[in-house]
């Protein structure tokens, strides 16, 4: 497809990468901007900024006029929130509003960035409970599950063609939050303890290309899991050790001990009126998540995944360029193909 695209969440890690790839392909792009600063950054990328908000339907419809496709990548991804209601508002109500506005504006197709986290449920669901009795590992996972349902229900009621993509943890140059904090902490010798569990990763370039393939080849109503590598955190850190020559070995806590520690930290933080980045839902996600299989996207969309070692080399090179690594990496020889990719 070559028509004008509209991107939400375009100043975020993935949304920006989507804008860059669309612009590089010669596509006219509009992107939602909530501030003047965001509008300036988007204009610098080659996109036409549209001032507005997910919940401001008139501004959405005005910006969507004349667009062929919407890439809805906006959303809140956070753990340990004292009040998760604003996250649900953005992820669920905001996503529904985008679909309704797109349909009203005559958009032909919407590619919705869901999450692989929607596939994870707690142990109580393992026996096959009812859909409304799912035990979610985190508020984020629940919000994305409900958002995906809302998007598909709005699609069915309006007739708008919607394709869902469900990425695993998106990594690469430009990412410093979420799981990337664990990687940066390890490389800086500041990860004395960890909790082992599934680690599912997709290179940001692959995730971006998967979105464009979903526009071109995706079947409306289908969801496509994007995951280039599935391992454990322990094996992921072993890969970093192999690439960098570091021999650090964090202590892996037993799950029950990690959950108990997280509960204590939550109580102390609540008593002090402070926010903590370490909590039980984060630990549950780390230890009870699933191993993902992204092969459907290869079969049905033609997506080729970057080897995880290549992704990590590019990412470490970017960390070093940005000054995020504060100690020598004795065995690291660079990305292996020149300058690292940028996101």
Which structural class do the helices and strands define? Answer: alpha/beta
Flag low-confidence runs: 122-133, 338-343
Helicity level, as a percent range? Answer: 40-55%
CATH level 1 class label of the domain at 5-175 and 200-230 and 291-305:
Alpha Beta
- Please indicate the percent range of residues in DSSP E strands (runs of 2 or more): 5-15%
Main sheet: strand order: 3-2-1-4-5-6-10
Number of helices: 12
What is the number of beta strands?
A: 12
What attributes characterize this protein structure?
single chain; 343 residues; alpha/beta; Rossmann fold; seven-stranded parallel beta sheet; three-stranded mixed beta sheet; 12 helices; 12 strands; globular; disordered C terminus
List the helices and strands and how they pair.
Blueprint: E1 5-8, H1 13-24, E2 29-33, H2 36-45, E3 48-51, H3 57-64, E4 69-72, H4 85-104, E5 109-113, H5 139-158, E6 161-167, E7 169-171, H6 179-187, E8 193-194, E9 198-203, H7 204-217, E10 223-226, E11 229-232, H8 233-244, E12 251-252, H9 255-272, H10 280-288, H11 295-301, H12 308-321
Parallel strand pairs: 1-2, 1-4, 2-3, 4-5, 5-6, 6-10, 7-9, 8-12
Antiparallel strand pairs: 9-11
